[in-house]
Design brief:
Layout (H helix, E strand, L loop, with lengths): L1 H38 L1
Length: 40
Amino acid sequence: MAASAERMLDVSARYFAEPAESLVQGGAFARQRARAGKAD
């Protein structure tokens, strides 16, 4: 059971790593754009 849970975590970590990275970068980009819009 512990081994399968570990395997599941490893798979989901690999599956979510890339989308999470792009979501974080996208959020930072959106915040920068919003800040630039407020400055104008």
